[in-house]
Specification:
The structure holds two protein chains of two kinds. Chain A is an all-alpha fold. Chain A contains ten helices and no strands. The radius of gyration of chain A is 21 Å and the shape is elongated. The N and C termini of chain B lie far apart (42 Å). Chain B has nine helices and ten strands. Classes of the chains: A mainly alpha, B alpha/beta.
Chain lengths: 232, 248
């Protein structure tokens, strides 16, 4: 009698799970998941920062479009944004790699959420800090750059981590447009072997967990390293 | 040096400054006192435009604050401000707290800015704290650093908004000593404070405010010995014998 679970489907396809057909073909599996997550993470950090700053601008002509954009994106399912980019980008710019449309969708979506974290972080810095800096003659931009953001960003770290953990998991939605990240690879192998869905999906669940947990631990370590935090 | 002419300010319907007329000459030390909510903090915050005025004219060091062409950042660089809550930058060391503004606004080279900062730290008696962070300092030390930070821009006017009100009693003296030293050096100063000993000893003039109005302006000896206004008399009674104020 055969054992109840058969994890040989994992060991047999291990390289494919990890890096797809790379280096003989395109990167896939965990490698592509990480690539999508890291690139979108970096881009949406800056996207969120810029959107956040625009959304609290003194000038209504800047503030309202930014707020409208943020609310629009936040009111849409991510899956729809992914479809949207997948069909819109090629229509606008000719041929765009599928990976890039997914990165753009993830960046757009995450930036909108990140911008609210940025605003909360900025508003959490006591007003006295801004007043003290203004009273020495610094311009409001210098106050933001040297006084408010350095303190605010540190307070934003836990929320950023939350958002990036969501982002890692959200990359799984890319499978719907045929980008061969981990979930897509898993469905491929599942379709080919037809017999081991439990083993395959338990395995990729574990991988997602490890990725997210590793990222959370890394950021906790980073937070502890920020020198002036110890002074409190 | 500072001239208020018919200055009014409203917070919505609240009339916080009511027809303020005040002139401060160079080198003068003016102490502003009065019960809480009388508008004295608002008054000095208008001078470097942390609070804009609603009506009237305010001229500081030759610059008209109502004039749209006035460069507010330039004005603020000429006017030092010391807060009740110190407001040091917690993420920067003491020396960086002081050198930030000269380095970024006046483009003073780092070495020179640090030398000037050290001279100021020596002046306030804290040269050994140059690399400490604000949270490692006592309240009195933080406030002295805050004074050094304000002086780093070489201001022509210094404003103090209740600089000792948030301090433990045993630290008040060290801050007042620095302020007295500054006054004796000829700095133009406006000080909102309840430290009547400081007012008596250092101030050239005392202004008493209540409900947004300057009720009385007099040299300290006249103000303390012969207050004219009933509100001022009451205020001084409460200040000198707080325990008995409730039951005359």
């Amino acid at each position: 009698m055969e054992p109840f679970f058969n994890f040989s489907v994992i060991t047999d396809n291990f390289t494919y799970f990890m890096i797809g057909r790379f280096p003989h073909g395109p990167l896939g599996g965990v490698g592509l998941t990480l690539y999508l997550a890291v690139v979108s993470c970096v881009l949406s950090f800056f996207g969120g920062l810029i959107l956040g700053l625009l959304s609290i601008s003194r000038f209504p002509a800047v503030r309202y479009p930014a707020l409208a954009f943020i609310n629009l994106v936040r009111g849409m399912p991510l899956l729809m944004v992914i479809f949207w980019m997948y069909f819109l980008m090629p229509a606008l710019f000719g041929k765009v790699a599928e990976n890039d449309t997914v990165i753009m969708a993830l960046t757009l979506f995450t930036s909108a959420y990140m911008s609210r974290i940025v605003v909360a972080g900025i508003e959490g810095i006591p007003k006295g800090q801004t007043e003290a800096a203004l009273s020495t003659g610094l311009t409001s931009w210098q106050v933001m750059l040297y006084i408010v953001l350095p303190q605010g960003l540190r307070n934003m770290i836990p929320s950023f981590v939350n958002q990036f953990v969501s982002l890692i998991k959200d990359t799984s939605l890319a499978f719907i447009v045929g980008v061969s990240e981990l979930t897509h690879v898993a469905t491929q192998i599942n379709n080919r072997t037809m017999a081991f869905p439990t083993e395959i999906f338990v395995f990729i669940a574990l991988i997602y967990f490890i990725l997210c947990y590793a990222f959370t631990s890394l950021s906790r370590w980073l937070e502890g390293r920020l020198s002036w935090s110890k002074a409190f | 040096m500072i001239t208020f002419k018919g200055v009014h300010k409203w917070f919505k319907s609240l009339h916080v400054l009511n027809d303020i007329n005040l002139h401060v000459t160079p080198g003068e030390v003016l102490v502003v006192c009065g019960p809480s909510g009388s508008g004295k903090s608002t008054l000095i915050r208008t001078i470097n435009q942390l609070e804009p005025i609603s009506e009237g004219s305010l001229i500081v060091d030759g610059m008209n604050l109502s004039d749209r062409k006035t460069d507010i950042n330039k004005l603020r660089a000429e006017v030092g401000f010391v807060f009740q809550q110190f407001n040091l930058y917690p993420h920067l060391s003491v020396i960086s707290n002081i050198t930030l503004a000269p380095a970024k606004i006046r483009n003073v080279p780092k070495k020179e800015a640090e030398e000037q900062a050290m001279a100021l730290l020596t002046r306030v008696g804290l040269s050994e704290k140059r690399d400490a962070y604000p949270s490692q300092l006592s309240g009195g030390q933080q406030q002295r650093v805050a004074i050094a930070r304000a002086l780093a821009m070489k201001p022509r006017i210094m404003l103090f908004d209740e600089p000792t009100s948030a301090l433990d009693p045993e630290m008040i003296g060290e801050v007042l000593a620095v302020m007295k030293d500054l006054a004796l050096s000829g700095m133009t100063m406006i000080v909102v404070t309840h430290e009547m000993g400081f007012a008596r000893e250092v101030a050239h003039r005392v202004a008493f405010m209540a409900d947004g109005v300057i009720l009385e302006e007099a040299p300290p000896e006249d103000f303390f010995l012969r207050p004219k206004h009933e509100r001022a008399k009451q205020f001084l009674r409460q200040l000198l014998t707080p325990m008995h104020a409730e039951c005359p």
